[in-house]
Amino acid sequence: MNISLQNNKLQKILFLSAALLFLISTVLFIIQMEGHRRIFYFPVIGSERCASEIRIVSSDAPQGKICAYVDELLLGPTVRRSRPLFSAGTKTEFCFLRGKKLYLNLSKEALYMEGESAEINLGIKLLKENIKRNFPKISEIVLFIDGKILAEDKK
User: Fold this and answer.
1) Which residues are bridge partners to 37 per DSSP?
2) How far apart are the C-alpha atoms of 122 and 134, rounded to whole Å?
3) Rounded Cα gap, residues 9 and 43, in angstroms
4) What is the rounded CA–CA span in Å between residue 59 and residue 43?
């Protein structure tokens, strides 16, 4: 009886230790998580609908959180049923915020319709919608492609 009592105590101690270790690791994971959950919308192949993805985007990126988000958006979707907004190789030339106005310049690759990329007008529309939904304080987006002003959009 003495041995079974010791085994029962040992099992309780092991269980409590494992539970405490799990709790501590969960709290540390949440604290250490660098970034914010952001939502991305991409057009679905063969449909008028959009698919959404949730990703963690760095909150302390050297280029700023808005530019980090745009860079991630330009990489395209992670699922095969969705299309990227622009052709492969499109990148951000500059991206900065003045007050509530975002100035964004995309590389000339944004003009090319290669592979499964979205039609240019749809890509621009979804780019703006993505930014405005994730950063509601932005009231205007001034978009450039290859240094040439394309559109100025008020909210």
Assistant:
1) 56
2) 18
3) 58
4) 26
Helix (H, G, I), strand (E, B) or coil at 22: helix
Q: Residue 118 has which token pair?
A: 């979205």
The pLDDT tens digits of the residues spanning 8-32 come to: 888 888 888 888 888 877 776 666 5
- pLDDT of 100 reads 93
Q: Which residues contact 104 (CB under 8 A, 6 or more apart)?
A: 70, 92, 94, 95, 131, 141, 142, 143, 144
How far apart (Å, rounded) are the C-alpha atoms in residues 118 and 84?
6
Percent of residues in the chain assigned helix, strand, coil, to nearest 5: 40, 30, 35
